[in-house]
Amino acid sequence: MLRKPKVVVIGGGTGLPVVLSGLRDRNVDITAVVTVADDGGSSGVIRNYINVVPPGDIRNAMVALSGMQSLELDVFQYRFKSSDQFFAGHAIGNLIISALTEMKGNVFDAVQELSRLMQVNGRIYPVANEPLVLNAEFSDGTVMSGESEITAAHQVIKRVWVTTEDHHEPMAVPEVIEAIEAADQIVIGPGSLFTSILPNLMIKNVQAAIKRSQAEVVYICNIMTQKGETDQFTDADHVRVLNDHLGYQFVDTVLVNSEPVPADYINFKAWNEISAPVKHDFQGLRAQNCRVISANFLRLRDNGAFHNQTMIVEELIHRLQGVR
């Protein structure tokens, strides 16, 4: 029997589930590696009150890979209204993940147990078994801690790194390292460059595992720039930041959208985190020794610009041809 190609998807935020749900029913062995540095919204409140790994990105990854019926998933994703003061803004899934973390004693075991209950097709690994703190140095030399505070500062980010809350060296769980080393393809993004993607890559044993891995590293470049993170960035700037943070040119292939975003379509009030379409710099990409795949990866919906899940996944599967 031919083995399934092993795909590791690294990220967080809203971009990760797009890739995961598209791969779920394809003939691939999926591992999702999810950031644990989020400190905003429901995840941040839960993190502060009961000192668990922020559950929101894990919850969305679970829904993306789950084989449960839509009603059960809708209940898991249900977020209490703001008028429900005690539970205001919390998603039921966040509370379940937090409760299981207390029951099991750690988030990794909690997620594995819940993955079985939710019929997850693949594996979901929090990148670390404890909450991580994201730190940033801005171009003016100032330093700030906290994912939501860094984004809200709207300054030019020079570099980011992660620490644990008690300031020891962050380490990824062994299962994450084993998955990366065994992967045929490592997919990074789409997602917030500094606050969803890099927190995973700033863990030293993750960096070492990627360097040892023989897998093709595919970066799915964002379609729009993000306020407070990547204002004015080209696609080459995104790749440069990734390579600079790891200290070598590790991105093998980059997927960039070639379809123009209609200037009058985007509702920037509704989608207030984005600022403008990412500009192309193919010369800058080639200078970083990465293969560039430029195609119409755009999906317009709800007056916003998103990745076309079908086109992205088809390209990822195409790149796996011959891997058995």
UniProtKB/TrEMBL annotation:
It is found in: Cytoplasm. Keywords: Cytoplasm. One of its GO terms (cellular component) is cytoplasm. SUPFAM superfamilies: CofD-like (SSF142338). The keyword DNA repair does not apply. One of its GO terms (molecular function) is LPPG:FO 2-phospho-L-lactate transferase activity. GO terms for biological process: regulation of cell shape. CDD domains: YvcK_like. Coiled coil: none annotated. InterPro entries: CofD, CofD-like_dom_sf, Gluconeogen_factor. It holds the Pfam family CofD. Belongs to the gluconeogenesis factor family. Required for morphogenesis under gluconeogenic growth conditions. This is Putative gluconeogenesis factor. The lineage of its organism: Bacteria, Bacillati, Bacillota, Bacilli, Lactobacillales.
